[in-house]
Structure formats: structure tokens, C-alpha cells
Amino acid sequence: MAERLIVIGGVAAGMSAAAKARRTQRDLEVVVFERGSFISYAACGMPYFLAGDITDHRELIVRTPEQMIAQGVHVRIRHEVTAIDAEARTVTVHDYERGRELQLDYDKLVIATGARAECPPLRGCGLDGVFGLRSLESGLAVHRFLAENKPKAAVIIGGGYIGIEMAETFRRLGIDTTMLIRSGIALRTTIDEDVRKVVHAELERHDVKLVKDAPVSFDGEGKVEAVVTEGNRYPCGIVMVGVGAAPNVELARAAGVHLGATGAIATDASMRTNLPDVFAAGDCAEALHLVTGQPAYVPLGSTANKQGRVAGENAAGGNAVFGGIVGTIVVRCFDLAVAATGLTADCARGLGFEVQETTIQAKDVSHYFPGAEDIHVRLVVDADSRMLLGGQIAGKRGVAKRVDVLATALYNRMTIAELGKLDLSYAPPFAPVWDPILVAANVANK
Amino acid sequence: MAERLIVIGGVAAGMSAAAKARRTQRDLEVVVFERGSFISYAACGMPYFLAGDITDHRELIVRTPEQMIAQGVHVRIRHEVTAIDAEARTVTVHDYERGRELQLDYDKLVIATGARAECPPLRGCGLDGVFGLRSLESGLAVHRFLAENKPKAAVIIGGGYIGIEMAETFRRLGIDTTMLIRSGIALRTTIDEDVRKVVHAELERHDVKLVKDAPVSFDGEGKVEAVVTEGNRYPCGIVMVGVGAAPNVELARAAGVHLGATGAIATDASMRTNLPDVFAAGDCAEALHLVTGQPAYVPLGSTANKQGRVAGENAAGGNAVFGGIVGTIVVRCFDLAVAATGLTADCARGLGFEVQETTIQAKDVSHYFPGAEDIHVRLVVDADSRMLLGGQIAGKRGVAKRVDVLATALYNRMTIAELGKLDLSYAPPFAPVWDPILVAANVANK
Q1: What pTM, to 2 d.p., does this model score?
Q2: Among residues A107, A116, A106, A90, which one has the least CA distance to residue A35?
Q3: A44 catalytic, yes or no?
Q4: Which one, of A136, A131, A129, A207, lies nearest residue A172 by Cα?
Q5: What number of CA atoms fall less than 13 Å from residue B423's CA on the CB side?
Q6: Overall average pLDDT of the A404-424 stretch
Q7: From A44, A125, A236, A333, the catalytic residue
Q8: pLDDT (tens digit, 9 = 90+) per residue, B209-247?
Q9: Are strands B176-181 and B278-280 parallel, antiparallel or unpaired?
Q10: What residue in A sits closest to B288 (Cα-Cα)?
Q11: Domain holding B30: CATH number?
């Protein structure tokens, strides 16, 4: 009899695992349970769906249940796995469609339960108009609310990626936008101060009010009417809470799956958990950070897809290895792209590194070429080993793929002297003769 | 008494050497002889100056003689070094301004004589309207000719970077443009066939007539009127010859400087030639190609600047090392960017590698994001070691800096499996969740 793989969660990691497992072992029975109504969607596209760049939410869906079934993967949406019995190798599933419970045994199990938007447990948190953004359902709810209520003012809680992206979305929709950030600092854990200034200036340029403040409650009758802080009251018709993602680990933990120090599921490089034949991948799991050598929790779609594929291949008898992360991210902030990889100087110092920091401003293409724009490159270097520890870039163009050069350098543990020697592409429309990365490396290397 | 450094040639490598030497050793006397009228200019910008993107040729000048003199570097334009006596440590210089000869002794010498546009020795080569493009003087001559003659038709000889860039320039000026390429193939030595097809299509889309043919003579009375081939005659008002660059090595060779197998000046990693205290850098010199391990001749501004800096630092008593090249290039072809690094499959096979080739087509940003465009990525892999040997990318956006990721991978001798594991940046406006580089690597790794 064929073996059965059960995958819990049908978005990025889960669906990657299912598809890869099926391709790896053609006679494997693959069943995916997804508690929501959608599978395999690009959650990261939601701010642009809400802004109207993408008119139909179905464009965000990579694969439908029907397409997966055609590939031989059984997909059950609105089915929530409520318990795992690792001893008996069974899962208990609640079918929301028919209101019934199922029990199914597995040979291999992939846990890909994702993460949820964290929400501070404040009074009024459940008011209509107070949103987090993570699942496609949450995005559709915001979309519907915006259409029906046409709010004039929005408050964003938090200054992370979601906060930044939603600030852009709200402003493009003509909504007055206030960001309440406890530290008063956008992208605090992602970029250091001098690059952050460029981000703050871009937010201000687009009339986003950035306030150092934190909510104590949400006011309103049924619908949110204001965010209340210790000293202030911010009237608004919609609230977006973007204070981070929390891994959905309750199901796994109850089954005896070990969590790491980050609170997400601990795995080895093959994405195996401590339980036999139980894998975990994506936003519910940790990833090895190659710069620190420690597991980290950086829930991103790119990592989820990679981990899912590794888990799926190995669940199907393969021998794949997840290569780890270096913490590369990029976010659009209006006309600006902001990207980072590796460690910030603050973080590196916290880990005990003696840090050297270099920030340069240069032009993104040859200075004489029409439309040359400023680009800011910051490098974080280990003063002892002279190894690159991290980098941050902000500018209008050529940011995301420049940070990828730094990510590749981190992967290869390059020193700053080596970085300055790279043979990077040059032509006036695309880069200066000394690419800003080389300029930064050469300044850092002095 | 202070030592004297003489630098022969005042463009990219020469001026980098002079400036760096002066910064390294403040009491060094630095004298630069440049036979032309301009120093320190960005020759690569000339096609865009001719197209009208850059309105004043002075914008291409990075540093004027006056600025260099203010930095303590003596610059003599219209001074040609006509002989080097390595035994006596002197140079003979012809001063075109005053029509006299000088002799000057040196302690250190940097040869940065650059390259010239190769020209086939055909009848009519000297006609007015037959141009190569290398020095700023040559660019200004084309500019003047275009303004005075307003040619309706142009013929470009050769399908390299200059040919491609000038095809764009001529078409943007409304000039009928025919490219005569002996092989019929644009960028033949830079990219392999499947990416080349994308380039050919872009040229055709912009009405550039690409013809497999080669000139036997240029026809005209004083001014060029047609290019004549064995079977055809191509009437035209201007001809641009772009069949390659030839290193200016005659002066060095006559002085006993060794040339490499490529015909350019051979140096070690410190940019020293075989003669004591004589360095060479830039378009007249070879560069170590890190993929082949052999010296190569790839005359580019980016390499010239790096080599010049190393030569200058070492001439001033430093201990710098030129890090070698991997052959990274990028060229704009109308709306397309075309980039390559490392070896083409053809070249790798010629060197005895057993080659595996992979070409993929993907979207440059998330497929659902407005304006997502096709991007083509080709990887050349050593079938034995599974190491990346080269890569080629063509597309409208995100090409130049994506090829830099491959250049960084080559520098670090990454395998294709490692390449597929990189933590590259992802956000819908900038890249798909699987960056095209990862897609290509994963396909190649199957």
C-alpha cells in the first residue's frame, strides 16, 4: 500500500511541500488540510491588492485546489487539524463544511500552520475595523471594510513591513494615515539609524504622521472610532495592527513537538522536528541564521517556499537540505526601496561583535546619466575578522538586487576586502563605474 | 628628494593610479602625460551623449586637469610619451602644444595607454564619416559629424557592445540603421544563442536591420556614401566600426615590456610588469580571469578603475592586490538590459569543460504585480564539479544587479546547489518569491 503524507496548512510552505513530495514520489498519497478557504496564495501581495494595483484577489492565488487535485494532491479546504497523535500517527480533523470530525492516519506529516498577526490584548481589539493582515481572508475583510466604510483616517500600530506597506496603501487611497510606533522608529529591528532616516523622510514626504506612542485601547461602538493611548486619542475609521507575526505552534506543541528559543518550531536542516516522520516548514518554524549560527524566526514567503520544498522532498524519501537564511528582506516605502540582509549594527553588538559601521551615499547609476538617484549603502563589519556581518540599502532603484549581492557575500562569509574586489556589472544606465556596493566596501576597508 | 611617478595616459586607469598614488604617499611627485585633450572621462557614456541624453560632453568628465593639479597631480594634456628607456628610467615625451620633445626620469612608471577601436584595413577606411568610438575626441567627432551632416542612414560594422549601443543611439536619432555582422550574430562572444534571440528580437522590434555580411570597402568621395560587401552595397551617410578594441601596447613593447597571449600587457596581481618599477593598468593590460585561472583581455571601465587604483597604490609603496575579473558586463539594447558574467557555454566547451546549460524564462517581479516583465536567465555549469561557470540575463529590469549575484557566486566558486539556496530578497514589487536566479539554479540542479 502506498504511504500517506499529511500536510497541515495549504499556503506557501504547505503547498510547496505537497507539490514537491508528489513530484518526488509519484505513488505517495498526499493530503493537505487547510482551515481557511484559500490555498497557495501570495499573502505578500495583499497591500497592493488593497491599493488597487491588483484588481482581483484571485490573481494572488498561485494554485487552486482543482489544480492541485489534477496533480494528484488531495486538498481539503475549511478543514482544521485539531490534534496530532504522534504515537498512533493520526490526526484529528474538523471539517467546517459539513461540521464533522475525521481521523486519518499518516506515514509522514508536514506541519505548515503558518503564523498569525500578533494583536495586543487591549480593550476594543475585537471592534469592527481593527485588523491584522496575514491570511487572504484577513485581506479580503480589510478590502470589504474599506469599500463599505470609506474611512477618512487610518491608524497603523507598528512600524514593520506591514505597517510601512499599509501606510503606502492608505495614503494612495487618500486616507489620512498615522503610524503609532512604541519606539517612534520605523523598521527598528531591520535597519540602523542612518538608513532609517531616509525611510522616515519618505514617510513624511507622503504625509504619513509618525508618532512615538502606543495604544492602550480601541474606542468605538461596534466599529472602531479612535485609538486611545496614555496621553492621546487618535480618531480613525480603520486600524491596522502590524506589530509582528506569531507562529501558529499550539497544535504542534500539544503533540509534543519541540519549540526553539524563538518560540517557533525547532527543526534540523532537513526540516525534521523531534518527532519521528514529522516535519515543519514555513512561518511556524525556525530557520538557521548563517551569520549568527543560531536558529532565528524570520517568517517570510521566500523562506517558507524553500523550507516547504525541502520538507516535502524529505517526507517523500529524499535527502534535501535547507540552506539557512541570512535574513534578507526588502520592502517598498512609496518611491523608496529599503532592503537589509544579515545583522544590523545594533543586533551585532547585542551578540557581542565588535562592530565597524560604514554608510555611504552615492548615485545609483552614472552621475551624468539622466535620472541618477541617490542610493544609501550601509555595511556592518566585524572589526576582528573583517567579515561582512550585514548590509542595508535604501534608494529608488537597484536596491533589492544590490542587497542580494550582499546576501551572497554573507552566504560565502566574505571579508570586506574581498567584497570591494568584486567584478560587478557596469554600464551608465545601470550602475556607476564604482558600484555603490564597491564604494561602501572600499570606504569600510580603509 | 621625493620620488617621481610618471603615469602614461590620463583616462580611467591612469587617473585612478595617479590619484591613488598621491593619496597613498603625500610627498610623491606624480606626473600624468595624456596625448589627448581630455583626462578622466567616462567613455562609456558617449553613446548617450550622442543620443542627446547628456547634453554637454563636459558632464562625462570626472576630473579636470585643474582639479587634479589642486590635488597635487601634475597633468600634461596633449603630451605623448613616445619612448620609455627602462634602463635609464626615463621617458621621452612629445608636447603637441609647443611642438617640442622632453625627457624626464622616473622612479616609478604606470603604463595606462588604453585601447583603440579596431578598424579593418579596408579601402575607404579614412573617409570622413567612418568612425570608431573609444576616446572622447572620437565621440566629439561623431557628434559634430551628425550635427553637420544629418545622415539618414547608418551602417554599424560589428555586433558587440558599441554596435548595440550605437544602434540604439542611431535609431533614437531617427536614422535608418543596418548592422553588418560577419557571423550574423550580435554579442556572439558574450552570450549564448537562446539569450541572443531575445537581443535579436529587440533589435528587430526597433527596426535595426541585422545582416550577416562583412565590408570589403567603404565608398565615397571624401565622405562615406556606402559600405560595400562581396555581394552588396549599403548606402549610408555614416559608418560606425565596432569590431573590438586593440590594446595600445606599442610603446610598452618597444621598451621591453612583456605582452601576454592575449596581446595585452602581462602583469602580476600587483599590476607589475616584467620591468622593475613599471606597472600597467586598464585597457592596455590583461586581467586574471578567476573562472579560467588564465589572463584575459576584457577592457572595461570598471576593471580599468580597479587596476589603476592598485597600480597607483603599489607605485606609491603600497601592497594592494587586484582581485581579478569574472568577465561581468551589461549593455543596454533599447528597452532591454543584457548582462553576462563568467564563461559562455561555447567558450567553456572550447576550454575543455563538459558543460550543462539551463535557460529559463520567468517574470522579473511577482507575476500578479502590475507591469511584471519577462526575464531570461541562462546558467552555464561544469557538469563534473557542478560549479557555476557563467550566467547570462536579459530583460527589462533587474538584470544588471541580478548578474552581479552570479558574479559574486563565481568569485566564491559556488556550486549550482549552493546558488539555489541563496536567501535573496523578495517583495512583490521587486522579485518573485522564487527569484529567477533561484528558479534557474533549481532547474539546473535537477
Answers
A1: 0.97
A2: A116
A3: yes
A4: A207
A5: 31
A6: 98
A7: A44
A8: 999 999 999 999 999 999 999 999 999 999 999 999 999
A9: unpaired
A10: A423
A11: 3.50.50.60
CA distance B413 to chain A (A): 9
Between chain A and chain B, the number of residue pairs with CB atoms below 8 A apart is 219
| Interchain CB distance below 8 Å, B329 and A403 | no
Residues of chain A in contact with residue B433, where contact means CB-CB under 8 angstroms, are 12, 42, 44, 301-302, 305
pLDDT band at A2 (very low <50, low <70, confident <90, very high): confident
**Cα dist from B4 to B34, B74, B110, B315, whole Å:** 17, 11, 11, 10
Verify whether the Cβ–Cβ distance A45 to B327 is below 8 Å: no
Domain boundary among A206, A221, A243: A243
CB contact under 8 A, B341 and A423: yes
Residue segments in chain B with a per-residue pLDDT below the cut of 70 = 1
The answer to whether B109 touches B284, Cβ cutoff 8 Å, is no
Binned at pLDDT 50, 70 and 90, residue A319 comes out as: very high
What is the span of the domain harbouring residue B304? 4-44+60-115+247-315
Label residue B228 exposed, middle or buried (CB < 10 Å: 0-12, 13-18, 19+): middle
Residues B125, B235: one domain? yes
Give the integer Cα–Cα distance in Å for B245 and B299.
Answer: 8
* Closest CA of chain B from A10, distance in Å: 16
**How many structural domains comprise chain B?**
3
- Burial track B161-182 (b if 16+ CB lie within 10 A, e otherwise): bbbbbbbbbbbbeebbbbbbbb
- Alpha carbon of B114: minimum distance to chain A alpha carbons (Å): 16
A129 and A97, same structural domain?
no
Q: What is the pLDDT of residues B372-397, one digit of tens each?
A: 999 999 999 999 999 999 999 999 99
How far, in Å, CA of B312 to CA of A105, rounded?
Answer: 72
Q: What is the mean pLDDT of residues A325-352?
A: 97
